[in-house]
Design brief:
Two copies of one chain form a homodimer. The first copy, chain A, is mainly alpha-helical and 105 residues long. Chain A has a single domain, classed as Orthogonal Bundle (Arc Repressor Mutant, subunit A). The first copy, chain A, contains five helices and two strands, in the order H-H-H-H-E-E-H. Chain A has helices spanning 3-10, 13-23, 30-37, 41-53, 73-104; strands at 57-62, 65-70. In chain A, a hairpin with a 2-residue loop joins strand 1 and strand 2. The A-B interface holds A 2-13, 16, 19-20, 23-25, 70, 72, 75-76, 78-79, 82-83, 85-86, 88-89, 92 and B 2-13, 16, 19-20, 23-25, 70, 72, 75-76, 78-79, 82-83, 85-86, 88-89, 92. Chain A binds a DNA duplex (30 and 30 nucleotides) through helix 4.
Chain lengths: 105, 105
DNA sequence: TACATATGCAACCTTTTGGTTGCTTTTTTA
DNA sequence: TAAAAAAGCAACCAAAAGGTTGCATATGTA
């Protein structure tokens, strides 16, 4: 929910790698993550938990496995936030430019 | 430079607040940041250093003050990264959809 | 020049993070 | 049913983060 939490979850190379692989379709279970990333299962689990808390992935226990899937909603929220910042900045620059022009005339 | 570093820098409520205020034009110096955010000067400085290392802001010593300015380039990079993830995901969903259709015919 | 302002650097402290090992439980499958 | 595969939980550990105080330094200003 909190935007800072989303960014924080993305702010780690291992987690970014997980997200990147998930978005292109690999890494389906907890153990495949730990194998592919070369971490212990618990190490992988902690990272996945962080991502799940930020709602960037979903973890569903299914029989013996825990299936990991990508959840793009939070990513969209992060995207919107960044865009909003860029927009604010542009508006401000534009205001400054207009002020400078007004100064000239 | 590293995308994870950018996200990490954004992954803290205080720093997000700083960036947000900067993008709309307030918070010009180190001390104004510390005053407005209610931190000690050194606390503020550490946060600003993190943002500067991630190249999200510029700090330039100017006489007695240190002027803080917003630097939107890294933000654009983060934006592109997120977009690329979303695109990958969409491509994959599309492939799945086509596969399902092929299955039907 | 003397004083106030703005900053820098270093040390310190507590909490969080990233990672591990060990042990138990659940679910397949041979 | 017995073995192995996948996972959960807890404890532990070192390093990083977030924040503080103290002291020194540079820069304006009265």
């Amino acid at each position: 929910m909190l935007i800072a939490e989303t960014f924080k979850a993305l702010g780690d190379p291992v987690r970014l790698e997980i997200i990147e692989r998930l978005s292109s379709g690999s890494l389906y279970t907890l153990s495949s993550v730990s194998k592919d990333l070369g971490l212990t299962r618990q190490g992988a689990r902690k990272h996945l938990q962080v991502l799940a808390d930020a709602e960037l992935i979903k973890m569903e226990p299914t029989g013996r496995n825990t299936i990991i899937t990508f959840a793009p909603a939070s990513l969209k929220a992060a995207d919107s936030f960044i865009k909003q910042l860029e927009r604010k900045w542009d508006v401000r620059l534009e205001a400054l430019r207009e002020f400078a022009e007004g100064d000239k005339s």
